[in-house]
Design a protein that fits this description.
α2 runs antiparallel to α3, α2 packs across α4 and α7 crosses α9. The chain is mainly α and 218 residues long.
């Protein structure tokens, strides 16, 4: 087993499985965040945030989620380094634009930028709510970030950029993860690419609409 996990195929499999786990988490997270738009009193969102603070979630699911992120990041770095060592020179005559998408050629860069966005998100919300525990109204905390004058506009813009970067990362990562676990024939690849693009657009649009709604309408 250890020799398989240390092989290139094993590493790709681990990164793909952790990526699919994170894809599911992103969808759940988006659904929870959408409560911000459906209830102006904030009670619905606060109830969801309170549920995420329960011990079974906080000490059970959250460490698993953190582990998924760490494993995905570590294996992405390892595979990127290995791929670059395997192809130290680029072929000048190769037109990469015809054989791959922009997002697939820049997954590592996109992943790094998404990581910065996640760190910003943790600093603004997760640490005050889950770690420090000194926030009594989670809805008001989120609302204030996006409505507080000029800084609210800045944060709104930053979160929109982060949502777009996340969508670009998912556009390739979604279907390639399924390909790595065995669904690699032409028929399924075509289907998964379409589903991946739809999912990426849905996620990017969802995480874009929420800060815009809070800034202009909340």
């Amino acid at each position: 087993m250890s020799s398989f996990l240390s092989s290139s195929i094993g590493k790709k499999l681990v990164m793909s499985l952790s990526g699919l786990f994170l894809v599911l988490f992103i969808l759940v997270h988006l659904i929870l965040n959408s409560f911000l738009m459906f209830d102006s009193t904030g009670e619905l969102f606060n109830a969801g945030a309170h549920f995420m603070s329960l011990p079974v979630i906080r000490f059970g699911l959250q460490p698993v989620l953190a582990g998924g992120f760490i494993i995905h990041i570590i294996y992405a770095i390892i595979l990127t380094i290995q791929n670059r060592k395997a192809r130290p020179q680029k072929y000048a005559s190769q037109n990469l634009g015809e054989s791959s998408t922009w997002s697939s050629r820049n997954m590592f860069v996109l992943g790094g930028l998404v990581l910065v966005f996640i760190a910003m998100h943790l600093m603004h919300f997760f640490i005050p709510i889950q770690i420090e525990g000194n926030v009594h109204d989670d809805y008001q905390l989120v609302k204030n970030l996006f409505t507080n004058g000029s800084m609210g506009m800045v944060y709104t813009g930053l979160y929109i950029v982060g949502a777009i970067l996340l969508g670009l990362h998912l556009a390739h990562g979604f279907w390639s993860a399924f390909q790595s676990v065995g669904l690699s024939n032409k028929l399924w690849r075509s289907r998964l690419e379409k589903v991946g693009y739809i999912y990426a657009i849905f996620v990017a649009a969802g995480f874009t609409i929420i800060p815009l709604y809070l800034h202009f309408f909340a």
